[in-house]
Amino acid sequence: MTVTLTVICAIALIAFGGLMAATESALNVLSRDDIRDMAKTRRAKISLRSIADDLGAHRNVTNFVRTFAETTAAVLITITLAASGLPLWAALLLAVLIMTGASFVLAGSSPRSVGRAHPQAVLGISAPIIHSLRFLLGPVADALVRLGDRVTPGRPG
Q1: Residue numbers of the domain that contains 37
Q2: 157 residues of the chain, pLDDT tens digit each
Q3: Does residue 155 lie within any of the structural domains?
Q4: In terms of pTM, does the model score above 0.90?
Q5: Is residue 49 part of a domain?
Q6: Structural domain total, the chain
Q7: 85: which DSSP letter?
Q8: How far is the CA of 30 from the CAs of 14, 17, 42, 115, 117, in angstroms?
Q9: What is the C-alpha to C-alpha distance for residues 31 and 79, in angstroms, rounded to an integer?
C-alpha cells in the first residue's frame, strides 16, 4: 500500500470514527419514543424503527465500529511513520501524538458535541449505516459485551 493511500485510508477511518462518535451521542440524547417519532417522517423509517426497538444493541455496535475505525487508523499511521525512515522511537512517539490529537478532536469531542446539539439530524444521516452495521457486526459486538460482562466483577455473566 502506498503512503498516500495509507494516509487517505487513515483519514477516512478517523472521519468515520467521528460519525460514529456523533451517532453515539445522538443515541444517548434521544429516547426510544423520539426515535420512533423520527421514523414517521424520515426516509430511513425501517432503520429508525429497528434502532428504537433495540437501542442497546445499536449503541454497542456503534461503539465497537468507532473503536475499530480509530484503532485501525492508529495502526496505519504508525506503520506509515515506522516505514518513513525515522528512528523507531520517533515514529512511535509521533504516531501517538498524531493519533491522540486526531482521536480527541476529530473523532471525539467535536463530533460528540455535534451529536448532542443536533441528534435528530445526525441519526437521520447515520441510521441506515448503523442499522446495516448492527446486522453485519452485531454478533461480534454482542460477544464482546458478554465477554466484558464475564470479566467484570459484580456483573452477571
Answers
A1: 3-149
A2: 688 999 999 999 999 999 999 999 999 999 999 999 999 999 999 999 999 999 999 999 999 999 999 999 999 999 999 999 999 999 999 999 999 998 888 877 889 999 999 999 999 999 999 999 999 987 887 888 888 888 887 766 5
A3: no
A4: no
A5: yes
A6: 1
A7: T
A8: 24, 20, 15, 10, 11
A9: 41
